[in-house]
Amino acid sequence: MYAIPTAAHILGVTPAALEAALERGETIRSLTIACGQDPDRITEAIVDAETGDVVALARIAGFEPDAIAEFTRELRAYLVAFVDDGERVADRLFETRTLQPV
Fold first, then answer.
1. Predicted confidence band at 102 (pLDDT cuts at 50, 70, 90)?
2. Please, which residues have CB within 8 angstroms of residue 71's CB and are 6 or more apart in sequence?
3. Which of 15, 43, 67, 92 is deepest in the core (most CB within 10 A)?
4. What CA–CA distance (Å, rounded) separates 67 from 58?
5. Over 70: is that where the pLDDT of 53 sits?
């Protein structure tokens, strides 16, 4: 997952420092705002960093364009929840989504 390194780079902190803040209950969104940066910009950077690999792997695996589009929509929704509310919340929201094998 590229979310932590991407966010850490934009915020100007180490990935370890970011992870420590997240473990204390901060969110990437709250930290971004505290640093005076645009939370939408960091969200888009994280989505962009993650999406390319998912699309490439889905194509290699032979998924149809509609399935790939669904994967990317769900990935985006997951990452927005991850940035805004944290990993546990994002994980709970997507425990039974179509990203799981059929």
1. very low
2. 54, 55, 58, 63, 98, 99
3. 43
4. 8
5. yes
